[in-house]
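thought: fold this chain, then report.
action: predict
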Amino acid sequence: MHNLTDKSTKIVATLGPASSDVETIKELILAGANIFRLNFSHGVADDHKLRAQNIRTAAKELDISVAIMADLQGPKIRIAQFKNKKVTLKVGAPFCLDGDLDLEVGDETQVGIIYKHLPKDVHAGDKLLLDDGRIVFAVTHIDGNKVHCTVDVGGELSNNKGINKLGGGLSAECLTEKDKADLITAVGLDVAYIAISFPRSAQDMIHARELVSIAGGDSRLVAKLERAEAMHCIDEIIEASDAVMVARGDLGVEIGDAALPAAQKHIIKRARALNTAVITATQMMESMIEHSIPTRAEVFDVANAVLDYSDAVMLSAETATGNHPAEVVRAMSRICLGAESSPETKISKHRVECFFEGSDESIAMAAMYTANHSAVKAIVSITASGDTPLLMSRIKTGIPIFAFSPLGKTLRRMCMFRGVFPVPFSLEGIDNNNVYQKVVDTLLANKQVSAGDKILVTCGDFVGQRGSTNTLKVISV
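observation:
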């Protein structure tokens, strides 16, 4: 169970060749990882099945709840290959992205494209950014399936690099046939979350949810915000999702570096206002792929995401292929704890002037404001769905929220929520009158409270029934 010195911000760790065995996963959990990301851009279904199995084995051996997030690849908007694997492009030189060219014969003047729709999506004057913006082309004209360009920013370009259009506007479907097959695999693995790449609208998320339902699953959905178009309908996408990810790689390329920090802050603010979890991701501790300590800039980056009140911060290649995955998670945990010690992370005006729709939100808000303005040691939510702890976690606080649930699926889902610590809690054989005593006994047994402490408990008249939270009790231990 949670130690009171543990961080409130959750860490998403991506698994890969450096981190997929049971012992390494256990080390990552003990270092502070709460959610494990399976990146479906790499590997085959059997790789992901084995990783999911190893995550569950590690979590069971440590008796700790962790979540699994399957991250779908999304459309491959990429160039094809060069006959010598890479070329060096000079500024001002002409270059052609050719939809008719063989996929393996590119040279210094031309290359094939895997994304065949590109010539229909671009116009003269558009800027195309390749390899995360390291190479920039200005489109001069379109000739059938050929996109003729001039090199604006040159350098080395190698096989299969991604293409973005500055300002967005590429029409690739959000879910490819590969994604639809991978989604069925993810549902079969019963993952807590499925991340959807490149959604442009709420409709993309609604469609993905329908596919999860058809596959017989109930995994929650994460919208990866990485398209310029998504920024124009941000609230609608957030409301159609269970969590959102500030996917700063592609988003930064499409909207431009200078606009990215403000976009990140805006997404986090809107997600929290709309009672949705939010992950900040991409290159957070990139230097630690090789080095044993982060740069000062990375420390500031992670800390700022924590101070903005992200629910989770994410590691990609740092844990998937890096030299010391557990050390990266330990470093990130330290930074989270340091940022969380700031007084501003404990003061909240969230929804203070709002009208609450349901009794569960009223109770959640009442609990948090009571806790923040009195001497309360712990907040306990007895929950079947995890919805009340999510609502509670939107309020800034320094007080731990212990989410007691008998349902493993709910416990894993709550691993995403900032400041929420899932606790397995069996309701078998106890009536409503004895529930509060069992809550106190559990907290005492785990040394979370002492005699004389005050705790808040929320639950429903019928403990364990979804959506029935209507009671707030103040209890002295």
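thought: worth noting. The longest strand covers residues 135-143.
final: tokens above.
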